[in-house]
Amino acid sequence: MSTTGTTDREAAGSWGARDGRETAGRLLRAATRSGAHLVAEAAALVQGWAVLADPIAGAVYSTPASAAADGVHAAAAPQEHPYCVQLPAAGAVLVLAPAPTTPTEHTGHVAATTAALLEVRGQRAAELRGEQMRLHTTLIRLLLAGHTSVVTETLGRNTTTATETLGRDTAGAEGLGRDTATAPATEGPGGNRLTHVTVYRLAGADIPAAHQVLWRAVRPSLDPYAGACTLLGRLDGELVVAELHHGGDDGRVLRLVSRVSERHRLLAGMAGPLPLAEMPTAHSGAAAARHSATPDRRIVPADAVGTSRLAPLLPTVPYARWAESVLRPLAPAHRHLLLVWLRTGSKPRAAAALGLSAGTVRARIRELARLLGADLEDATVQAHLLLALRAPGPDDGGNAPLPPGAPGTDRLAALPDGLLDGEAVRSWAYGLVGGLEPHLRIALACWLRHHARTAPAAAELHVHRTTLTSWLGRCAEHLAQNLADATVRAELHLALRATRNGPDDPAALPRRGGRTYRRL
Length: 520
Known about the structure:
The protein is an alpha+beta fold. The chain has 20 helices and nine strands. Mean pLDDT is 76; it is low at 1-13, 158-192, 220-225 and 394-409.
């Protein structure tokens, strides 16, 4: 890469055809290497700085690196940087800040030539993008199938055909940096392989456009991100982003996913960092988290899904003993399946999250119901089961885990005496549902018993579905809770049971003739 300034002049102080040819030749030679070299050469030619700024990724290429923030700001507010030359290039903005002594004609020629070469590289990359995207999807499927060593070895071949296949050089041709999927899987002579993964799963109507935007935005050219790589793939109508790293997630991809989710109105779930071997767990956890996302909170971490405000209030020892007793017949894989099912709220959603068929999930849940000796279709049993799955483990002050397969001594249909009788639990329950009007409380309790199905609940209440929907909307507003979240519904069910003075019977719904309820 050249580090010299401008070319020789044919005549002092002039800029002519020879300068233009030499400038174009230098830029062309740099463009054959990478987009980063091209932008660096442009900065050298104008004796200033050059930045390629993307609206989502920020500074894609920057020479010097310290000019990145200035370049992004100049692209966003050009009127505040009149000394900069700006041109659109490959879906981004090329910003040049020449030295005061650089001729205007020379700066304009450098800017126009650099932008044109970035466009050419972008077109070439677009031709190969489909193949690269298919390869990314294949690598994600291999990770889900447990072939982690194959993937890490493929990503680590920096000088082999694998790197060429992923298109490291042509990735920069878009003007958006090196394909992070080709970042080295090792660092230094010790061979420190990528060991952890963070998974994002996005869903929405604008997935194809979001895929293209993220594909461009996650390819950084700055050195601090060279130790991680990002795979993007579309699986079963969803956009899956898998960031492979060394156990420390710096949040860069999270910020990009968040911006894209807002821009394209997508809902996203996030899980990790987890060891690469636990990629299937992260994948299903991200799907469960996505079902808790809302337009007000478009990306939800898996560790925030089902986080109970009730569980920390329960007495630790009896709570942990009861949970371990009822869950004793289950292996860890069984518990994970139940947790995903309860968090997503339905068997088809759980099947999609786990990568199984709905029939397989139904069959396994029936088998688990037999092992647990409980009716898992009962709303109370489901709430108790979710509470048991949230119980503290051995590292949190609970009992040591018991071997799976032995029958449990406690049952899910009822909680141990005194578990929900504490003052702290009653305060929590009354704070959550204590202010509901009687008809709203009865309607909400009935709807929860019917697993959030409006039609059967309305039939039992003898009100129209529209009426019940209106009441549920008032409940959500009063409680400030997202009733679409299955874990929220489970806690509301427990809170209603802990605070009831009567049976919350639909027959007790206040009425005034016919089907009209009477406000008390």
